[in-house]
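Key result, reporting period 2: structure in, sequence out.
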């Protein structure tokens, strides 16, 4: 029966239809009591009269409601409305795995991550005696934050588990009779096809099929007809994996183990499978590629560890410098010879002159020109300015007073300027990127406001907008715009789009781990880009407009494509990106270098004990999620704390609080001296960050639950249950606790700082808040906070009165050598105002003209 918006079902109000499936319709609804959006699934009217379909529908509800796991759809209630049974569940935002696979294979690391999450969800269901039996991409949902959720337990059944406590088990007793075939043919196990009684291992087979499809883009058994597909599952080997995928042998063996025809030869538990998949996810590029071509790639997703999603601060990346090896068939002519970083470069209209923007030896960015074959460059003195584009008439589009977010991103004031020099003409603020129209009379540009990126062409006419991040607009000679769209907020899943002048959007290619540069090919009919697929290095690729991909050049060095000339020459920069940590300790005036490994990120700082807690997020880390270390002022080697995410040094300097990588995660307390970490009791919270309260008895958690978004919690270290202390919101990973332990300051809603008073239980916005500021600590009297202007170099730190919002400059931070420093964050100020620590990223590069590309 149709349900119009506004229909009430007890506390639930129908809002809008979401879709329909084989067993019913789903509606977006509002829980008016708990004030949250939910999904309500109704059994189709013509089905509710059929006892078997009704039984299966109720079985779905009972099966799923018996489970509580972050990788299984949460069921809140089962009800009946005028004879129509319904299920109330959490509302998911994102897309099914099937929709994701329509764009082709996934990067290996992403495929393994999804498979591991699915296996963990299955393990939780199997532990309750529940087998899904209809696992397929349509029944797996991928949320916008890349969490996999198993849907539709409508074909589940209860196994006979003698050891199960029946008093606490789901009351499901009906088993499917042998000889009955349920499920979707292409994902059935052999025993399921034969109509035999099945157990948990049938789900493992189905997951193996899905993993093969995620990795290769192809179903291993799919044939033209259902009977042929069933025969292939029963009798034939899976389709061969293309050699070009360069899969690690261990991954291939894992998939074969899932797809054994005999259930006795497969993985015997989903938990074991999850462990094995997790171990696969740590395979490095050096295990996949030739040993002579070990490479590093940019990890855009680590912006989450560096900052909340602040408007205009788009990308933080991690790179390791390697000696450039030049393939014999390519010519590499060096253009720049100074020490620093390059943000953009373009050929001038004569194709012999080159315009680029760079920051040499720590000086502000300026625009430079040079000619092929000349080692000298001429500054145009537009300081501070970064190049965006050069028109066919040699007019420049530049960004003034910009804040860099990474390669090819600079948020600032758009201006037009002459190649000969002079005074720029300012046009618009808040522009992230721009390119000239073919005739050089107008500009296509990207502007960012909190939560929205907009493409305008010409300026002022919005033709496309996205809640994700848009960068690198390039206009073809026909007026078509190519650009990159990074999934927000992770910045790790990049797609190449084209947008017509009428606003028609087409996805050309998806699921790039990184894209550092983009340009139209010499004939203007294809797209060239520098990017990275899964474990591969940042290489140069060509895409046709149907998404067919061709490798143009790959060297043991991370690259950034800047521009392509009509005769096929390319401007390409090499990139060396690493991180460093500096601190000033009590009684000292000189900054100490606490850097270790290739990309250390500070998470906590104890001035009293001379300690810096950090995570190494580079390739030297043994874990894809980073390795935690504790560095001390005595100069000894840092103490390795493992792959857990460690975020807090205790007030007495004796313990470290960490979060395990399990799902759901647990809090682990490490001793600085030695010993096994103490685990606090498990709970259903997904934990993201932890820090100590000054009393040494409680921890502050940033966490979420199945039925709640991210919020702040107090977690007693004695293991008592965590209690929420804030509303739901989007919080940064570095909230600051006042010295008296009564208040918490943190970034929320992407650009707003809030103060949470734990005594009065009230929350309020910091007065006179400035977008782009993040919290750096509290003053000793607990009346003011330190804030830093995110992304600016040098970084200006302010003291802000939390009652009035009045601010004054405390200090400007800059490392001893500012060369190539493009981002300073996080910053941590001790309450005494005398000591501090901060992290930075340093990006260095050289510009080349590359010939011989075909």
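The corresponding designed sequence is given below.
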């Amino acid at each position: 029966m149709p349900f119009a918006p506004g229909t009430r079902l007890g506390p639930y109000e129908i809002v809008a239809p979401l879709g329909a499936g084989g067993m019913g319709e789903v509606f977006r609804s509002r829980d008016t009591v708990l004030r949250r959006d939910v999904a309500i699934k109704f059994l189709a009217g013509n089905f509710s009269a059929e006892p078997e379909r009704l039984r299966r529908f109720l079985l779905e509800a009972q099966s799923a409601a018996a489970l509580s796991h972050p990788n299984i759809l949460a069921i809140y209630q089962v009800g009946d409305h005028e004879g129509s049974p319904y299920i109330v569940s959490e509302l998911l935002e994102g897309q099914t795995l099937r929709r994701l696979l329509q764009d082709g294979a996934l990067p290996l690391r992403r495929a393994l991550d999804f498979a591991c999450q699915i296996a963990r969800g299955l393990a939780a269901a199997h532990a309750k005696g529940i087998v899904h039996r209809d696992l397929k991409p349509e029944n797996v949902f991928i949320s916008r934050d890349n969490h996999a959720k198993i849907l539709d337990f409508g074909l589940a059944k209860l196994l006979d588990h003698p050891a199960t406590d029946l008093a606490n088990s789901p009351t499901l007793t009906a088993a499917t009779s042998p000889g009955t075939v349920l499920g979707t043919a292409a994902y059935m196990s052999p025993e399921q096809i034969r109509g035999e009684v099945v157990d948990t291992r049938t789900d493992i087979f189905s997951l193996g099929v899905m993993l093969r499809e995620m990795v290769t883009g192809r179903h291993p058994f799919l044939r033209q007809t259902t009977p042929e597909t069933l025969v292939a599952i029963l009798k034939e080997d899976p389709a061969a994996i293309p050699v070009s995928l360069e899969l690690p042998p261990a991954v291939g063996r894992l998939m074969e183990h899932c797809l054994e025809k005999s259930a006795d030869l497969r993985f015997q538990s989903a938990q074991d499978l999850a462990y094995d998949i997790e171990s696969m996810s740590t395979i490095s590029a050096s295990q996949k590629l030739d040993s002579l071509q070990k490479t590093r790639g940019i990890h855009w997703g680590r912006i989450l560890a560096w900052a909340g999603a602040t408007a205009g601060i788009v990308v933080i990346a991690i790179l390791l410098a390697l000696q450039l090896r030049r393939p014999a068939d390519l010519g590499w002519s060096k253009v720049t010879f100074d020490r620093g970083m390059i943000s953009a470069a373009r050929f001038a209209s004569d194709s012999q002159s080159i315009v680029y923007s760079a920051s040499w030896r720590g000086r502000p960015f300026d625009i430079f020109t040079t000619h092929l074959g000349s080692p000298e460059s001429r500054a145009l003195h537009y300081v501070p300015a970064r190049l965006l584009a050069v028109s066919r008439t040699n007019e420049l589009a530049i960004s003034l007073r910009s804040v860099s977010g990474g390669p090819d991103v600079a948020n600032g004031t758009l201006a037009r300027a002459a190649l000969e020099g002079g005074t720029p003409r300012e046009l618009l603020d808040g522009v992230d990127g721009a390119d000239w129209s073919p005739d050089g009379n107008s500009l296509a540009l990207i502007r960012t406001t909190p939560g929205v990126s907009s493409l305008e062409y010409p300026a002022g006419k919005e033709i496309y907008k996205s809640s994700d991040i848009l960068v690198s607009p390039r206009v073809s000679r026909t007026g078509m715009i190519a650009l990159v769209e990074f999934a927000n907020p992770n910045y790790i899943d990049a797609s190449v789009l084209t947008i017509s002048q009428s606003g028609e959007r087409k996805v050309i290619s998806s699921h790039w781990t990184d894209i550092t540069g983009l340009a139209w090919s010499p004939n203007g009919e294809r797209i060239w880009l520098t990017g990275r697929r899964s474990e591969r290095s940042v290489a140069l690729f060509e895409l046709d407009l149907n998404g067919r991909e061709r490798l143009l050049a790959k060297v043991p060095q991370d690259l950034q494509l800047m521009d392509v000339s009509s005769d096929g020459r390319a401007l390409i920069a090499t990139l060396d990106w690493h991180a460093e940590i500096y601190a000033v300790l009590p009684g000292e005036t000189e900054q100490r270098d606490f850097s270790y490994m290739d990309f250390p990120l500070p998470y906590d700082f104890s001035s009293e004990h001379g300690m810096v807690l950090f995570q190494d997020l580079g390739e030297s880390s043994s874990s894809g999620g980073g390795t935690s270390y504790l560095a001390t002022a005595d100069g000894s080697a840092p103490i390795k704390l493992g792959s857990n995410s460690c975020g807090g040094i205790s007030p007495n300097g004796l313990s470290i609080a960490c979060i395990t990588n399990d799902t759901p995660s647990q809090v682990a307390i490490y001793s600085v001296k030695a010993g096994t970490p103490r685990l606090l009791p498990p709970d259903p919270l997904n934990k993201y960050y932890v820090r100590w309260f000054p009393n040494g008895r409680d921890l502050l958690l940033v966490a979420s639950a199945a039925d709640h978004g991210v919020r702040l919690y107090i977690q007693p270290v004695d293991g008592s249950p965590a209690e929420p202390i804030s509303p739901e919101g989007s919080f940064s990973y570095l909230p600051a606790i006042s010295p008296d332990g009564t208040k918490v300051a943190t970034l929320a809603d992407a650009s707003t700082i809030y103060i949470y008073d734990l005594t009065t239980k009230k929350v309020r916005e910091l007065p006179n808040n400035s977008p782009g500021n993040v919290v750096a600590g509290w003053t000793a009297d607990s009346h003011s906070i330190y804030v830093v202007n995110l992304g600016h170099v040098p970084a200006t730190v302010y003291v802000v009165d939390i009652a009035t919002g009045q601010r004054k400059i405390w200090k400007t931070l800059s490392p001893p050598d500012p060369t190539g420093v493009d981002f300073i964050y996080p910053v941590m100020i001790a309450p005494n105002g005398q000591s501090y620590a901060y992290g930075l990223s340093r990006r260095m590069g050289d510009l080349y003209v590359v010939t011989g590309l075909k």
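Confidence is low (pLDDT under 50) at residues 160-183, 282-328. The first strand starts at residue 8 and ends at 9. This case is discussed further under Risks and Mitigation.
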